[in-house]
Amino acid sequence: MARNKIALIGGGMIGGTLAHLASLKELGDITVFDIAEGLPQGKSLDIAQSGPVEGFDAKLTGTNKYEAIEGADVVIVTAGVPRKPGMSRDDLLEINLKVMAQVGAGIAKYAPKAFVICITNPLDVMVWALQKYSGLPANKVVGMAGVLDSARFRHFLAEEFNVSVEDVTAFVLGGHGDTMVPLTRYSTVAGIPVPDLVQMKWTTQQRIDQIVQRTRDGGAEIVGLLKTGSAYYAPATSAIAMAESYLKDKKRVLPCAAQLTGQYGIENFYVGVPVVIGANGVERIVEIKLDGDEKTAFKKSVDAVKGLMDAAKKIAPDLA
Ligand code: A3D
To answer: Which keywords does the record carry (predicted)?
Structure first.
């Protein structure tokens, strides 16, 4: 059986980390595409040379030509620019929309059967634009944000409770941004919901509120520390989990930006919700019942994404 082919569009900080992780996990052969000459070639060669030490077999190819992604099974898109301190994700809108138009055309031509994971920010609008520009079915185009946001939430909760991260689950809804909605009642330690843990005096509601806020600001915290770019290890790991679920038909339930078709009262619109990812891409969208406060928070998040979509349609009328 031939190896799977994974194409990475963008060979920057996240792209390079994706190539490294996909190699270590032997997910398939990897093609890294970037407009910067030498960058994808150099990173691919460097990672390939770690193969004999790590003991993985994967062919790595760096390229500046779209035809090299031909026939890819999975495409992960990080092309564009990341945030610098003081910038919001939304400041990236105009420049990254132009990048999505090019990337969408490249995928449509050379990898129309691929499962596409978008990471470029502002995420919810970029994945929507990428689906339109590529013309691929919406169940094959998803955005990575929720896995990262919930991993951040899990990390902070595990630290707070002094338990293994493995035993902490977390649930995050909504757009990837300051309005994301971490749902505490669906977040647990070994199945015990966080509100119960507050009652059991493992922590206080005030501490949980602080952790929720730190999760929302998780990306900005790292941008502020790094000063020259944004997070890349955890974002790459999160996208690899999604790719793996597709390639191995694992049917994992992962929070992703997916196109809703009436769920949560929303139509034709990408936003973060739990989905089942298997061999058919997004196989199911999980719709849970929200209580009053959660509904309000989710609506606020959806409205923020809608506002950005309207701005995107003004910049790129072909998306309207
Ligand atoms: P960076 O290291 O700058 O890599 C981006 C790469 O894209 C660079 O190597 C560029 O040369 C390349 N590029 C630019 N334009 C094009 C183009 N037209 N075609 C092909 N390649 C191009 O950034 P990064 O890897 O740190 O981040 C990539 C993106 O992910 C940014 O938009 C970030 O904001 C975003 N990001 C998203 C999350 C989410 O959770 C959604 C988290 C972290 C970063």
So the answer is: Oxidoreductase
Residues 6+ apart with CB under 8 A from 236: 14, 17, 18, 21
Tokens of 253: 């339930």
Distance 183 CA to ligand 1 centre (A): 29
The answer to whether residue 20 is catalytic is no
CB atoms within 10 A of CB 174: 30
Taking the CB of residue 16, how many other CB atoms lie within 10 A of it?
24
83 lines ligand 1 (CB under 6 A): yes
pLDDT in tens, 260-283: 999 999 998 999 999 999 999 999
Can you list the alpha helix ranges (DSSP code H) found in 59-163?
93-110, 123-134, 146-161
**Structure-token match 């929070």, residue found:** 255
| E strand map for 64-220 | 74-77, 115-118, 141-143, 168-169, 172-173, 181-182, 188-189, 192-193
The yes/no answer to whether this complex scores an ipTM above 0.90 is yes
Burial 141-166 (b: 16+ CB within 10 A, else e): bbbbbbbbbbbbbbbbbbebbeeeee
CA 176 to ligand 1: nearest atom: 41
* Catalytically annotated residue among 69, 176, 222, 240: 176
Q: What is the pLDDT of residues 130-171, one digit of tens each?
A: 999 999 999 999 999 999 999 999 999 999 999 999 999 999
Helix, strand, coil shares, percent, the chain, to 5: 50, 20, 30
99 touches ligand 1 (CB under 6 Å): yes
Residue 136 is predicted with a pLDDT of 98
Tokens of 7: 């194409």
The confidence score (pLDDT) of residue 86 equals 81
